[in-house]
Design a protein that fits this description.
This protein is an alpha/beta fold. The chain has a single domain, classed as Purple Acid Phosphatase, chain A, domain 2. 29% of the residues lie in helices and 19% in strands. It contains 10 helices and 14 strands. A 7-stranded mixed sheet has the order 1-7-8-9-10-12-11. A hairpin with a 7-residue loop joins strand 13 and strand 14. The protein is globular and about 55 Å long. The chain starts with a helix and ends in a 12-residue tail after the last strand.
Length: 353
Amino acid sequence: MNITQAEVKKLLSNKRKLAFRNSGEFKILFFSDFHSHYQRQDPRTYQAVERMIEDKQPDLVYMLGDLPGGPASRKEALEMMSALTKPMDKRNIPWTMVFGNHDDSICRGYTMDKIERLLRTGCPGCLIKTAKGIHGFSNHVLPIYYSEGSDKIALNLFGLDAGRDISAMNTDYNLRKDIIEYLSEPFVLRARRRFDIVRFDQIMWYWHVSEAIEKLNGPTPALMMTHSGLGETKILEEYPENLGVVGEFGEEVKVGAINSGLFAAGLQRGDIIGFYYGHNHINITEGSYCGIRFGYVGSIGYNAYGMKKAMSDREKNRLRGARLLTINRDDILNYKSEFISANDYVAPVIEVY
């Protein structure tokens, strides 16, 4: 795979330039796993998003998938996305996302390429600009410049689509049927089940785009976002004290059925300083492995599964939330990362199921 300078410049161009503020800061607010349903929306999800954005004033909202489900038409899908993104749109805050394993239900009957096009063309603040010719429909890179007037990139944000279901590998690669059946059995890898993975061509795309940006801009640090976590997250789960894990694992780590090799690629390429993902709704941890941060975003959705009915409402709200990164352009490697609990934004009330 060869990425020309013309191609990388096209990938880096966008309808909105992202740049560090005059103060030297750039804030990214991550949301994941809304799991809202068109017919059963919980207003507390939207209230939490609204209040967190108002309080934190991010420069970019980054959504890590599993948004709404249930809309039966393009009109309904856009209505729901408009409600979801209203807090950003009215403040002129741009947003982007990577797809999750449930996002094929954003609009019933739509293929993933149509859903991606729907969001890109129908949502004014959306910065998705998906790469062509590789697996997935939300693979992109967003550059953050040193300042509004600068052409020098300070930080890259890579997003890769981790797919929907492991059975798709059979369609894509003609794997033996017994292999797919084996990988789909819960008893094989108990917590992994049927989740798909980032594919090799996506990893190659990241590697070559990173190389091309380095030739254009010089060595540039980057963050990498996917919906589901990396296989190496299991190491942080096993050795939290050794790896400086803060927060808590509220559920067993669930990752793809096969280790994709994405972490190894980022480690060898040398630009990735942090991986961020959702998927596990009540994991709110961050740790470091081989000098690279691993961070769960948590779930913002009041319709999202995972909360135990025996928990108090306040306990559930403590585990719901978002993650905020505050990055200083003069000290990018030591950026601040914090989990933002919904308890601080939504008053505890009796849960609705």
